[in-house]
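DATA SHEET
Item: assembly model
Revision: 1
Owner: S.N.
Input lines:
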Amino acid sequence: MTVTAAPDEADVRKSGFRHEALLYDGADGLVRALIPWITEGVDAGDPVVALVTARSADALRSSLGSAGRHVHVADMGEVGRNPTRIISLWYRLAAEHARPGHDLRAIGEPVWPGRSREELVECQHHEALINAAFADLDDLWLICPYDAGALTPDVLARVGDSHPLVDDAGGRALCPDYSGCPTAVPSDPLPEPPDGADVLLHGAAFDVDALPAVREHARRHAAAVRLAPRRARDLVLAVSEVASNSILHGGGGGRLRAWVHSGVLVHEVSDDGHVADPLAGRRVPTPRQEGGRGLWLVNEVCDLVQLRSSAAGTVVRLHVHTTD
Amino acid sequence: MLASVRPQGPQDAPATPSLSDHACWAYGDDTEQASYRSGAVAFMADGQALGQRLVYLSDRRASRPLDLSPLGDVATMTARGELVVHDLADLAGDGPVRPERQLAALEASVDAALATGWSGVRVVAEVTAQVAEPGWCAGHVAWEQLLDRAMVERPLAALCAYDERVVGPEAARSLACVHRFRHGRSATFGLYATSDGVALEGEVDACQAPLLDRALASLPPLPTLVVDAGGAAFLDAAATDVLTRYAAGRRAAGAQVCVRDAGPALGHLYDLLGPSIERSLRFL
């Protein structure tokens, strides 16, 4: 494959932001596809940032050699474990690395073999949201690699939904499956806790006076699964933030439940409010704004966050791995 | 509904009474009133044991005067200057509290008590009418904070009582959160004076953050304010934002806000929030 314009790409580039999926086969395939593009960018003075799997990072670093010092590489498995924090991470990286007069060349690999089913759903939603989040970033060129040799067909089949351009063994082409930018928070209901889940708290209503009790429950749950002190504090913070949102924006109260399954502690907060903004919690707050930091902070500290909302109500599930 | 738990941090009484205890007591129904009536007399008794002159400011517009007979013979105590009693209803018409004038009067009364051999002054005041007047509450809270600061260095103790049914829950919380010792349903946190600033203790979440914002805004300004956060059991993003916004405002006025004993939670949260908040705190 080569770095040339695809037919009608000018239409896709109307907004300036370029979002492409790259289907590659193995580490060698990744290197063959990306190194010329990275090198072209480095030679032109474009900043290059890669959030990729550890394996992909090793392969890219080995091939780049000394040129690698011009490329910012981070392990997506660490920084992007929770897919719902990736967009705000890109906002920060774009602000940090952008150079006037240059494209920011970005590589984002949010999906790898071993991602859980719930994580994959959030990854797919994240990829679709990127089109809305970065529509105004004219100088951002984001390539999302997907290992076609290792990922399952059902995962690969969804790639085109969220990428206007797809680059595979046949070349780069506009994707007919691209379904545009989401305009709402997903509203499909989340499945009930699996059979065999250890329920720590059945649905319990709370109001503003019960917020200290909500935190106390979260503390006890963290202790029950022996979370490390810092993770326990993060969990209590996250549960409190979401419960506070229920009180302030969700009708004055909500319902809390919690369970453990397969090494994951899940807290679910539901209320009668409606989150209308599909990018809620995914923008980096600024010092000027009053409020609006809670959901962003929750995305920063949890291993996975699922948010579903409609006029019928809102559900937020916070996942923390018990074995880290 | 989840059962209420007591937030971590707030205390209703000191472990050992001191010459400078500052408490508030919010009462509501008859049971709570009865509890206040005996608790207020016990507060006076603590002062009596410490050798303080006792001052009782009743207000017949708000509640029946306390029965002080458990402290001794009231007439005898009054005659020898151990007990001073006034009814605020007799002083009504003076308008809202004038903080500097009131503070000067109180400090003069402490000096007078010390000069005649007492160890200080202990006051119980029924403040319902002061707080319930429309537009007076914020000023009264600021007065309480001025008094709180003065008490750090002086042997002056005070308990202010109010009927929550009359003043309303918002005013009750505003008052409660600026007292170190708090009785009754009240704020989940406290912000009270220390020798070099204030102590922030208890739990502040997004629902309580506006209350912290108001309490900080009405603090008497100090060129350097040290916030002792050792007792801050929980702070969230909104609470941290309020604190850093306050510190940024003080910095713009040429003052400084430092935090002592932030603990791992606040330090970690400050780092996590990164450039999303004002980077205005200095950690000691």
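QC remark: Chain A touches chain B through 38 residues (CB under 8 Å).
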